[in-house]
């Protein structure tokens, strides 16, 4: 009986003491999604310095480049580059759920802008298509906090 009274208090304490993450409303660049993997959720850290992404792999993933880019009108300006396999443990097997974080997003440079995250195959790969692309607005409420 005592435990049933403690559980709601414990949940309430967790809500107050755990740092809040800020969910990001994102869209796929092609409007429908990609055959390589899907992003199920994106969150900014409380200070907006990192983006954590939750994803599901449809096929094997390993050798990808990741770019965070500004979208200025019709022009895409890449700003930050990552090696996918330094963000996750490669290879990712089909059917896997995986989580990765894009570190060191320079929030002061990107505030009030539409951002894109683009996953592409290296130039030595025979594929030319983009593996994945999402876009979203940088959370202004996080920056001003």
Overview of the structural elements:
InterPro entries: ML_dom. It comes from Arabidopsis suecica. Keywords: Signal. This is MD-2-related lipid-recognition domain. With 145 residues, the protein is an alpha+beta fold. It has a single domain (20-144), classed as Immunoglobulin-like (Sandwich), CATH 2.60.40.770. The protein contains four helices and nine strands, in the order H-E-E-E-E-E-E-H-E-H-E-E-H. The protein has helices spanning 2-17, 84-87, 107-110, 140-144; strands spanning 22-23, 26-28, 37-44, 51-57, 65-72, 75-83, 97-102, 114-120, 130-137. The protein has a five-stranded antiparallel sheet. Strand 5 and strand 6 form a beta hairpin. The radius of gyration is 18 Å and the shape is globular. The protein starts with a helix and ends with a helix. The relative contact order is 0.22.
Short description:
With 145 residues, this protein is α+β, with helices and mostly antiparallel strands.
Q: How do the strands and helices of this protein lay out in sequence?
A:
Elements: H1 2-17, E1 22-23, E2 26-28, E3 37-44, E4 51-57, E5 65-72, E6 75-83, H2 84-87, E7 97-102, H3 107-110, E8 114-120, E9 130-137, H4 140-144
Antiparallel strand pairs: 1-3, 2-9, 3-4, 4-7, 5-6, 5-8, 8-9
Organism: Arabidopsis suecica (Swedish thale-cress)
Signal peptide: 1-23
InterPro entries: ML_dom
